[in-house]
Amino acid sequence: MPVVEMTSHLYRFFPQLQGRTISVPAGSVAEVLRALETIAPGFSDYVLDEQGALRRHVTVSVNDTLVIDRMHLSDRVPEDGTVYIFQALSGG
Asked: All domains of the chain, ordered by start, with CATH?
């Protein structure tokens, strides 16, 4: 099963994900995010916009490759893959 890793800042909003290995079924990036939503309700709303596309300040990569389809999230996640979710921070 693929593993999901994310920036530590996201754990502040979703503490139920902290300190655990997050394994989800393989499939598309959209399916991975739906699986995360079942573990941490509200996660999808945080990283996706009203049309279901990645928000501008969120970056997702599968292994070492940035997700290309930010609109439909159809990039495939292999069985042995790692999905990285990064949120840009701003402010001072």
From this structure: 3-87 (3.10.20.30)
